[in-house]
Design brief:
The protein contains four helices and seven strands, in the order E-H-H-E-E-E-E-E-E-H-H. It has 183 residues and is of the alpha+beta class. The chain has a three-stranded antiparallel beta sheet, with no helix packed on it. Strands 1-2 form a two-stranded antiparallel ribbon. The structure holds iron/sulfur cluster (2 copies). The site of one iron/sulfur cluster has 13 residues, from loops.
Length: 183
């Protein structure tokens, strides 16, 4: 989620580098019919659900997902499939599709805001994706997550308590998980 090339000066922010100029408008938000809006709210706003990302995916269509080249699979021992990566500098790469922000990552499968959206390389995803969370450590919703959800017509998340997680811990919600290997 998900600008994953650091936005300096905000320790709480994800290391997803984002193009804020294109952010809100860059996401392909759709006009929703009342029925579809109700369906989405029902699907995505049940804060008792363990993982709201499974019906969202907004952060994966917003940020520039930038990371150190050593995370690319190969001799360096990285995990990110090289065919899904664009080299943006001698030491940095980003997920294809996210080069300029405001567009979908190539590994994102499904329709934004709909059930079943997921990351096709979940187990191999780069560090920025692992660090971006729907909730902060204190259980408050991540403001960036809230903003992106709103941009695609989803309701904000409620704060979490330790009792909300299956094992008393905040789940690693982002990025969406459903199918661990690229299809
Ligand atoms: S709920 Fe938040 S963290 Fe999860 S996919 Fe949506 S924007 Fe990303
Ligand atoms: S690699 Fe996966 S988690 Fe990361 S931006 Fe792409 S779809 Fe989202």
């Amino acid at each position: 989620m998900p600008a994953r090339s650091s936005r300096s000066g905000d320790a709480q922010r994800p290391r997803l580098s984002g193009n804020h100029a294109t952010t809100a408008s860059g996401i392909k938000a759709q006009a929703l019919s009342p029925a579809e809006g109700a369906r989405r709210r029902a699907a995505a706003n049940d804060t008792s659900a363990a993982n709201p990302c499974l019906s969202c995916g907004a952060c994966c269509a917003h940020f520039r997902v930038s990371f150190y080249c050593g995370e690319i699979a190969g001799e360096s021992g990285g995990t990110v499939p090289p065919e899904l990566v664009t080299q943006v500098s001698p030491l940095r790469a980003c997920m294809k599709g996210t080069e300029y922000g405001g567009r979908r990552c190539v590994a994102l499968r499904g329709e934004l805001g709909h059930d079943g959206i997921h990351c096709a390389i979940y187990e191999q995803r780069p560090t920025p994706c692992r660090e971006f969370q729907a909730w902060l450590d204190d259980g408050t919703p991540n403001p960036d997550c809230q903003r992106l959800r709103k941009a695609i017509g989803l309701q904000p998340l409620a704060p979490r308590t330790d009792d909300d997680g299956d094992d008393g811990l905040h789940p690693n919600t982002n990025p969406p998980r459903r199918g661990d290997v690229a299809a």
